[in-house]
Amino acid sequence: MTTTQPIRRKISVAQYHRMAETGILTEDDRVELLNGEITEMSPIGPTHTAHVKGINRILSRLLEGLAVVGVQDPILLNDSSEPIPDISILRWRADDYLEAHPTPQDVLLVIEVADSSVTLDREAKLPIYAKAGIAEYWIVNIPGKKVEVYRTPINDYYRDVLICTSGDLIDLKPFNLQVQVSSLLK
After folding, report:
1. Which of 65, 75, 128, 138 has the fewest CB atoms within 10 Å around its CB?
2. By the 8 A CB rule, do 74 and 82 touch?
3. Is the dihedral of CA 123, 75, 162, 159 positive or negative?
């Protein structure tokens, strides 16, 4: 008896968008496109949402008029990846990116809040962000009570890695500002 392996077919961002336009995917579908594959996102629990709200509040105050703070908004990385990070810090644009999703040259920092998704954020998303040239990527690791800071992308990894805990400060490099790690962790 022979067994047949399922055929996996990669799709493009354009095809992914067409799936939404035709109703195959809806706003209620918690998915994102990573390396040509539609990936289901983890359910969002109250701990996750509280962290996202708190980080948004802190960064929005700090960066008012300096940058656009995106909350769970898509970023068009390339033809096969359009992730939806929890927080994105984007170059200032008065129109708030009205005409199109931000692309890598617009992105200064991406933050993923990880409650149950630490492995996905490290193993699947980190290489995608690095390969796209996203200068800085943070994982707010809730179970680990730390913030993992990845800087200086090279190919599909980051050369510089900082593990920051409650008493540490993290530099927001493009703005000459700092954030207290304890303010990001509840």
Report:
1. 65
2. yes
3. positive
Q: Which fold, 44-184?
A: tt1808, chain A (3.90.1570)
Instruction: Evaluate if pTM is beyond 0.90.
Output: yes
Instruction: Indicate the domain borders of the chain.
Output: 44-184
For the segment 16-36, what is each residue's pLDDT rounded down to a tens digit? 999 999 999 988 899 999 999
Q: Which residue, chain included where needed, has tokens 């929005």? A: 60
Q: Distance between CA atoms of 155 and 132, rounded to whole angstroms?
A: 8
Residue 179 above 70 pLDDT?
yes
Which residue from 142, 148, 143 is spatially nearest to 170, judged by alpha carbons? 148
Given phi > 0 = left and psi -120 to 50 = alpha, else beta, which region is 19? alpha
Residue with tokens 């995608």: 128
pLDDT digits 0-9 by tens, 152-165: 999 999 999 999 99
